[in-house]
Amino acid sequence: MTIGKRNSLSRWLLSSITAIGLVASAPALALDSIKMLVPANPGGGWDQTGRGLAQAMQQGEIVKKVQVDNKGGAAGTIGLAQFVNSAKGDPSAVLIGGSVMVGGIALNKSPVNLSQVTPIARLTGEYDVLVVPSSSPIKSLKDLIAQFKSNPGGVSWGGGSAGGTDHIIVAMIAQATGVDVSKINYIPFAGGGEAQAAVLGGHVTVGLSGYNEFAGQIQSGKFRPLAVTSGKRLPGIDVPTLKEQGVDVELSNWRAIFAAPGINDAQKRELMTTIDKAVKTKQWQDLLAKNGWADAYLPGDAFAQYLDNEVKQTEKIINSLGLVKK
Question: pLDDT band at 190, cuts 50/70/90?
Fold first, then answer.
């Protein structure tokens, strides 16, 4: 081997060793920091989801630092507007949202919508349960539907915000059972706690909320569960679905994560990889189990397609309820 060739080989080996050393010493973290906006007040479902995901990313050593800020109001649309206007092109900015936001956008005729952000992944799903007080003469879903059909306005439904997931479920039940949607007597409450009190006090005929909100009262025998809104029975919960009782309705209160408008494909992929790692951590899986959340992980383009269908379906139902502001 000539000196020139030996020198070339030496330079190649040196550069290769240097490159290997750089790779070996490179941090395992996908991102240095993330700024997460939760468009709701602290303590609610979106906040729990966002902070739980942040903890999973940090404890799993996927991201060094996650800063969580809250900006509540108008079913998430105030926070959405702030995110769209301030985070454009920022690859470290993310937004938590979900099905309630879809209804809020349609209901409030929001000047911003979810087509202006970048879908990263659907994260969780929480199914509703329909309950009546244990003292109610309504013993089954069949009894409830019979009463609803004979006197729609005489059945009062207590749930979350107008146009939210609970309200949409009632509209879907009406459509599936041939009841005029315009005759629904829906009473919105600020949260599951208020709806629970209304059911206990006999102020509404039937209550709807995420199963976890009512679980304690169901287990204590104060509430009689009539149905859950999942496609199949929930694990460990002996409550029949709407579908298996002849009412073709299935809907979950899903939650998701979005990236800023205007990021490029490489930045989007990096965020998707980060979230993909986070949802596989023990911290995240423990959070799902603790809160009774279904693992509804759906990343990237599949989530974007799902979201498009959800927006169309929700807008159609909101319009049929006559709730859209003129």
Answer: confident
